[in-house]
Amino acid sequence: MLIFIIALLVFFVGIFVFNGKSKSEKKEFKNYHRELIHTSEDGTTVDYKYDENDNIKYAKVSLPDGSFFEGEWENGHIKKGIRLQSNGVVQEGIFNENGTLINGKITYSDGVVELRDESQVL
């Protein structure tokens, strides 16, 4: 799933750069230097908030199937936040460079909650 989300991000950033049919909006944001909101033709929306060095510090990615990720970014990857998958699974906490939840909780669609810490990640 993570590879799918990363591939979508790369794809839609490419659409933003090369496709004049998609729409984007730039504006200043209170706690960040600037914000970029982009919606692709398939309905995927990304909302990036940048620091003064143009590094993404916060993002929300919403997909047409209802899944999304929202949270802090560090060095170009998801660091801390919440991810809702289309199957109803919710992951909250700290993610590693590969987007794997390493510290936090996973709530499955049937309500079962799994707590996770770094020692449980292979």
Précis, in short:
The chain is mostly beta strands and 122 residues long. The protein has one helix spanning 2-18; strands at residues 23-29, 32-39, 45-50, 56-62, 68-74, 77-84, 90-95, 101-107, 113-116. Helices cover 14% and strands 49% of the residues.
How would you describe the overall organization of this protein?
- The protein is mainly beta and 122 residues long.
- It is 14% helix and 49% strand.
- The protein is built from 1 helix and 9 strands; from the N terminus they run H-E-E-E-E-E-E-E-E-E.
- A 9-stranded antiparallel β-sheet has the order 1-2-3-4-5-6-7-8-9, covered by helices on one side.
- A hairpin with a 5-residue loop joins strand 4 (56-62) and strand 5.
- The longest helix has 17 residues, at 2-18.
Task: List its traits.
mainly beta; 122 residues; 49% strand; nine-stranded antiparallel β-sheet
User: Gyration radius, to the nearest Å?
Assistant: 15 Å
Main sheet properties? 9 strands, antiparallel
Q: How many distinct helices?
A: 1
Q: Uncertain runs with pLDDT below 50, 5 residues or more?
A: 4-29
Write down how many β-strands occur, each being a DSSP E stretch of 2 or more residues.
Answer: 9
Structural class designation: mainly beta
Strand order of the largest sheet: 1-2-3-4-5-6-7-8-9
Give the terminus-to-terminus CA distance.
17 Å
**Share of residues in helices:** 10-25%
